[in-house]
């Protein structure tokens, strides 16, 4: 990708992000209430989107020669560490460190 | 008036400061490990100001030029903002010129604070929300820039550092999981995505997955309506 293409890609991402933030305020200006269907989606979608993002992160790992095995080990470790210490940063840092160690030593 | 609002907002943002510096530095490090100058994480963190999407954009910049895909992906990954917005319609009412900034800077963490915290009655609510949003943005941009700079100074094997994004989402998933007893939404998200990944492959699964998720929720809602009536 050229620098101009990179800048254009970033601008498009900025525009998309801005739209998601501003659209509700444009569709429902002060004094107008959103339909119940939209409010319903607002309560359930956040839980589903994170699941989608987890799968998005693992999308390429699944089809590699290790079939996502180092990723699974690291995720399992994060889950245990997070259940135990309940410290978001420790879980993210610990999980990433373990993953980096695994792919730099055992899963080359 | 402003000093008082600042003093009320600051303590709520301190935990976010630690988190944003850590994640921001990781993000800057990731970008520099992929060969980008610190200007990229600095400007991207400022203008996009949506952590997950910034990580995703690193992948976009490393693959073939496809602005339409980038745009749709930005809409999908950030779709949750639509619902933050809907939740904040009331609170961001009558705040005047501060409103565009509050909306622009509405990241997950600023939303969480502004949505749940009611400042003491002697504190100006509008300025309180502005400071929460502004402080969080400063932490994030500072972290990303610092990471981008450090990445060029400190050299170590960064293979696997991209896993920080996976780790972030896994932890968010666990946190959400423990917040509620009803795990149907979480299962719907995971299940629909996995099914679509296997059917459509890693390049094209996001849009069908999002459509399937919305379809499932629409069916659930219809069923619940039938049951309750």
Strand content of chain A: under 5%
Helix content of chain A: over 70%
How does the helix and strand content of chain A classify structurally? mainly alpha
Total tally of structural domains of chain A: 2
What would the average pLDDT of chain A be, to the nearest integer? Answer: 88
Subcellular location (chain B): Cell membrane
Family (chain B): Belongs to the AzlC family.
InterPro entries (chain B): Brnchd-chn_aa_trnsp_permease
Pfam family, one (chain B): AzlC
What can you tell me about this protein's structure?
The complex is a heterodimer of chains A (108) and B (229). Helices cover 77% and strands 0% of the residues of chain A. Chain A is an all-alpha fold and 108 residues long. Chain A has 2 domains: 1-33; 64-108. The longest helix of chain A has 25 residues, at 3-27. The two termini of chain A are 28 Å apart. The model of chain A has no long low-confidence stretch (mean pLDDT 88). With 229 residues, chain B is an all-alpha fold. Chain B folds into 2 domains: 2-161, no CATH class; 180-229. Chain B is 76% helix and 0% strand. Chain B has helices spanning 2-33, 39-47, 51-62, 67-77, 80-88, 98-104, 108-116, 125-153, 163-179, 184-200, 206-228. Chain A: Keywords: Membrane, Transmembrane, Transmembrane helix. Chain A: InterPro entries: Brnchd-chn_aa_trnsp_AzlD.
């Amino acid at each position: 990708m050229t620098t101009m293409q990179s800048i254009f890609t970033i601008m498009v991402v900025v525009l998309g992000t801005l739209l998601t933030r501003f659209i509700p305020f444009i569709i429902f200006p002060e004094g107008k209430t959103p339909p119940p269907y939209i409010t319903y989606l607002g309560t359930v979608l956040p839980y589903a989107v994170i699941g989608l993002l987890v799968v998005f992160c693992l999308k390429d790992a699944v089809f590699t020669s290790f079939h996502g095995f180092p990723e699974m080990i690291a995720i399992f470790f994060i889950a245990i560490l997070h259940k135990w210490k309940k410290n978001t940063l420790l879980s993210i840092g610990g999980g990433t460190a373990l993953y980096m160690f695994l792919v730099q030593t055992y899963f080359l | 008036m402003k000093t008082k609002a600042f003093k009320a907002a600051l303590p709520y943002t301190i935990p976010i400061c630690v988190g944003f510096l850590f994640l921001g530095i990781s993000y800057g490090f990731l970008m520099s490990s992929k060969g980008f100058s610190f200007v990229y994480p600095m400007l991207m963190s400022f203008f996009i100001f949506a952590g997950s999407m910034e990580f995703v954009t690193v992948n976009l910049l490393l693959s073939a030029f496809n602005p339409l895909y980038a745009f749709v992906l930005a809409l999908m990954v950030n779709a949750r903002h639509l619902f933050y917005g809907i939740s904040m319609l009331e609170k961001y009412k009558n705040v005047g010129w501060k409103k565009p900034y509050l909306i622009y800077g509405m990241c997950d963490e600023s939303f969480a604070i502004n949505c749940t915290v009611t400042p003491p009655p002697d504190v100006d609510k509008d300025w309180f929300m502005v400071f929460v949003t502004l402080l969080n943005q400063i932490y994030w941009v500072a972290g990303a820039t610092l990471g981008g700079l450090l990445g060029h100074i400190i050299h170590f094997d960064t293979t696997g550092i991209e896993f920080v994004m996976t780790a972030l989402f896994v932890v968010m998933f666990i946190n959400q999981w423990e917040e509620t007893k009803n795990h149907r939404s979480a299962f719907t998200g995971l299940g629909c995505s996995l099914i679509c990944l296997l059917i459509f492959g890693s390049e094209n699964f996001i849009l069908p997955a999002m459509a399937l998720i919305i379809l499932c929720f629409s069916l659930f809602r219809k069923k619940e309506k039938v049951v309750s009536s």
